[in-house]
C-alpha cells in the first residue's frame, strides 16, 4: 500500500484526469471486474462518476466479503443493495450475475432478484448458497438468453414445468438440487429441451415424484453425474433418458441411485470416446450392491456398442448380470480380470488392477478371449500378488497373446524377500513369443 | 584434429537444413493482410493475428475481396503507435512456445512500460478494434488498481478532480452507505 501511494502521487504530476472521459461503456467494463458494491462506491469520486457504475455488465454479490474486510454490514444491507442496484442499472443486457450467500435469506427476495435479472436477459447466472433456498421462479426455465447456469444451493427444491426449453444454454451445472414437478395425482413425464447444451454436470441431484425425464440434448458432448452422498432410497424411481447423439465423454461417479439412466443413441453415428464408471461401496450392506449392479449393467448395456475407452471400478457388482458385447471397445481399465475380456474382441491396451480369480478352465485354449489372439498389444498388471491364479494368468497371456508388444507387471507392495524373488524367477521363466519386453517392477513406498 | 574438421564441416550443413526447414514453414504459413492506420502507415500483418481483431473481421465480411487484393484495410481510429503495441501483445500471446510464466512476465512488463496517456489511447484503440483479449487485460488491470483502495487514493491515482462540495460529498457517502462500502 505504501509504495503504491508513492507511485500514485508521482503519476499525478500532470494533474490531468486520465480516466473520467473514457466512454461510459469502457468504464462500465472496468468496474465489472469489481465486486458490485465496490463499483457502486465510485459514485463519490466526482460528479462525472455519480452514475458511471450503472454501466456495469457483470454483477457480483458475495456476503462473505463483509467478514473479510470487517465491513459491518448486515443481511438487510445486502438485500437493500441488491434491490437498489437492480433498479438503477443502465445496461440493457447483463452478461453475468453471480450471487454467493452464506447466510439465510428469505426465498422471496432471492426469487425476486433472479426474476429481475432474467428480465434483463442475463447470459450467465451463478447462485451458490450455503443455506436452503428454494428457487421458485418459472422464468428460469423459459429464458432464451441464458448460456450458462450454475446452481449450487443446499437442499434446494425446484418445481419444474412439464416442458422446459432453454434455447441458448451451453453449460448446466447443478449441485444439491432436488427436482420435482407441479403437484398432481399422476406421476409426470418431463421433457427438457436444451438444443445447444454442450456440458451437463450434476452432483447429488435427485428427482422426486417424476415418472420420467427426457433430455433432448442434440449437441451434448460431456455428461457427468456424481453422487457423493448415499441417499436412503424412497419409492420414487425415475427414468432419465438422454437423447445425446454427439456424446463423447460420460462419467458416473459415486453411489448407486434408484433411478434408471438411459441413452438414446444413434447407433451408426454415435461414438462415445470415453466412459468412466466408478461405483462406491454402499454403507448399507450387500443389498444395495444389487442396485449398484443393476445401474452398472444398465449403463453398460446402453453404452456397449459405442464406447471406445472404458474405465470401470468394482466389477463384482456385475456378478448379478450378463455382460453385453463391446463391439468397438479398444482400451479398458478394470480392477479385476473378468468376463469383460471375452466381450471385447478389439481390445488393444488392457490395464488390470489386481486379479480376483482365474480358473484353470479359463486357461483352456478354447475359452480364450478373442482379443488375446487378435488384438491385445499392451498389458499393464498392477498388484501382482504372486498367487497361483496370478501366475497362471500371466503365463497364459504371455504365451498366447500373439500381438503383445509390451507387458508391465507391478508386484503387490507386501510381496517381499524370498517370495518376491521366487515370483520374479517364475515370471522370467515363462516362454514368450518373439521379442517383446516384460517389465517387472516393485512399487516404491 | 580430424574430428574437428569433421564437426566444422557438418555444422554449416545442419544450419542450412534448419534454415531450409524454417523457410518451408513460413512458406506454408497463411497469407498476410494489409492494414492502414489513421496516420497512414501500412502494416503487413499475419492473417491469423489480424483475424482476431473484430473490426478486421467485420470489414472483411462486408468486403471480402480485401483479403486477397492489395488494398489496405483502413483502421480509422487507430494510430500506428497503438497498432505496434497491439501487434506486439498479440504476437507474444500467439507464440506457441510461450509458457504461462513467460506470458505473465511479458504482460507485467508490457503494462509497466506504458504511461497513462499511452494506456488510455491503447484502451480506446483496443475497444475500437474489438480485440477482446487485450481489452480485457487492460480493463482488468485498471480494475485491480481500484480494488480495495479508498476514495482519495483513486482520485490521486487517476487525477480525478473532486467537484463535489464537502456537503454534497458527505451526502453521497451517507446515501450510499447501504452498499456497505468503506469510504475511508
TrEMBL record, chain A:
InterPro entries: F-box-like_dom_sf, F-box_AtFBL13-like, F-box_dom, FBD, FBL13/AtMIF1-like. Residues 22-63 form the F-box domain. Residues 370-441 form the FBD domain. SMART domains: FBD, FBOX. It holds the Pfam family F-box. Gene3D superfamilies: 1.20.1280.50. PANTHER family: F-BOX/RNI SUPERFAMILY PROTEIN-RELATED, F-BOX_RNI_FBD-LIKE DOMAIN PROTEIN. This is F-box/FBD/LRR-repeat protein. It comes from Mucuna pruriens.
TrEMBL record, chain B:
Residues 33-93 form the SKP1 component POZ domain. Pathway: Protein modification; protein ubiquitination. Residues 133-179 form the SKP1 component dimerisation domain. Pfam families: Skp1, Skp1_POZ. Keywords: Ubl conjugation pathway. It comes from the Eukaryota. The keyword Signal does not apply. The keyword Phosphoprotein does not apply. One of its GO terms (biological process) is ubiquitin-dependent protein catabolic process. PANTHER family: SKP1. Belongs to the SKP1 family. This is SKP1-like protein 14. It comes from Mucuna pruriens. The gene is ASK14.
